[in-house]
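Hi R.,

Here's the chain you asked about this morning:
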Amino acid sequence: MGEPIGADVVFPAAAPFGRLRLALLRSRARGRVVAEGRVALGRRVRMTVAPGARVVLGDGCFVGDGVRIEAVTGEVRIGARSLIGERAVLISLAGVTIGEDCVIGDFAAVTPGDPPLRREPVRLGDRVRLGAHAAVEAGASLADGTVVGSYVVVAAEGARSA
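And here is the predicted structure, written out as tokens:
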């Protein structure tokens, strides 16, 4: 299976050293990925970072296997000691901030939502927990310590519901 179209970097298998994997990521993303300390990346992590956007990985954060991060505009910031579960998706059209000590569950998503896409920032405070398959849509802001259950969708205030 070939590399997905449009990805700046994809890790098909585990690199022998975590530092080597991060160095490869940073070189392919042309300086648009910043690590603020030690970072652990799982296999097949896919990051797409557009010109003018960037991804900042906090000290001690872990990005699980198969995670997809797309920074179209703005900044995706993952706080220190946060964990992004396997196959989670983070898409930024105006910025995503994940606080310190957060846990984003497997298959969870932070996205612009259903069409029409919202170009508003997303903020998750410190110690936020998103359950497996949970979703947070653009414009939402979660306070420190918030817990979102599995399969729950958090929409921004004023967003139309189906």
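One quick note: The longest strand covers residues 46-49.

Cheers,
M.
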